[in-house]
Amino acid sequence: MTRLEAIRKLFQAVEAGEVREAAATLAAGADPNEQNYDGQTPLHLAAWHGHDKLARLLLRRAAHADTRSILQLTPLHLAAAKGHAALARLRIDCGRWASGWAERPCSAAGPAGEGLNLEKA
């Protein structure tokens, strides 16, 4: 698989919510920080569609959490706009989206008692 094929497949897998396919394309060399024509990364798409398992997978693979699209939107903006509270809490409670692999472990329960362990994906 070429680099461009891997990137295309990663975006398609994330948009469709296919965790296994996304993991396979990442393993094949797809960069989780590639941007599409709108400046969005796979993490933007995961946040928009509410795919928390994919967001965790991308973060584990060093996705940059604060990349801004051409409209200056981050994945957090998109998660909040679509009402995906679990993804917003992942960013806020764990600090992972702010600094990539943050110093705080992400296994504590969130405000609603939901587990936010990145290892779930």
CATH class: Mainly Alpha
- Shape label: globular
**CATH T-level topology:** Serine Threonine Protein Phosphatase 5, Tetratricopeptide repeat
Give the full name of the CATH homologous superfamily.
Answer: Ankyrin repeat-containing domain
Please give the CATH architecture: Alpha Horseshoe
Distance between the termini: 24 Å
Strand-residue proportion: under 5%
- Count of β-strands: 0
Order of helices and strands: HHHHHHH
Low-confidence stretches: 96-121
Quick one: biggest sheet?
none
What Rg is obtained from the alpha carbons, in whole angstroms? 13 Å
- Mean model confidence by pLDDT: 79
Structurally, how many domains make up the residues? Answer: 1
Explain what this protein looks like in three dimensions:
This protein is an all-alpha fold. It has a single domain, classed as Ankyrin repeat-containing domain (Serine Threonine Protein Phosphatase 5, Tetratricopeptide repeat). The protein contains 7 helices and no strands. Helix 3 packs antiparallel against helix 4. The relative contact order is 0.14. The C terminus is likely disordered.
Q: Which helices and strands occur, and which strands form pairs?
A:
Layout: H1 3-16, H2 19-27, H3 42-49, H4 52-60, H5 75-81, H6 85-94, H7 96-99
